[in-house]
Amino acid sequence: MGRRPQPEIKERLLDACTDHALEQGLPDRLEPLAAAAGTSARMLIYHFGTRDRLLRAVLERARERQLTAFGDLLRVRPGEAYTVTLTKAWAFITGSEGQPYLRMFGQFRESAAVRLVPGFRRVATTDWLGPIEEGLRGIGRPELATLVLAVIRGLLMDLDATADNARTDRAFALFVDTLDQTR
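Predicted structure:
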């Protein structure tokens, strides 16, 4: 007679593994995740079944956290111009709070782990269109959502490649100024 599943332990392990992956990136082996969770690779397999299932769960949990944090940043705030909201969101996303997500999902985009969550790249792009479109509706330009998202993604890729925060921040500020002028 085996042990019964203990969902609270599985959740604790998943949170610890997700914290580690956001801080260090997705590891190639289970041992770093096990060490971060204070357990063994064997216990991770017991709770998640396979390495791939654990990594998928870590990616999904990290994505949930990102959607919550970034989604709140992009929501419309009564009395605040959406360009101000975008500027605040940019500062958060490119700051220390957003860096773990950018690092992890940037690494994910270029790794073999992309097979773990089919369609991830498409969904991870298009799920931001709705909140941005809604925000831009406030300045009468919801049709610019794809352009705004493309500029943000492009500048994030530039920042990742060059680590030049000052230049990418200036570029984003110039872009937001052009949105202010479209009213």
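Summary: The domain at 7-181 is CATH 1.10.357.10 (Tetracycline Repressor; domain 2).
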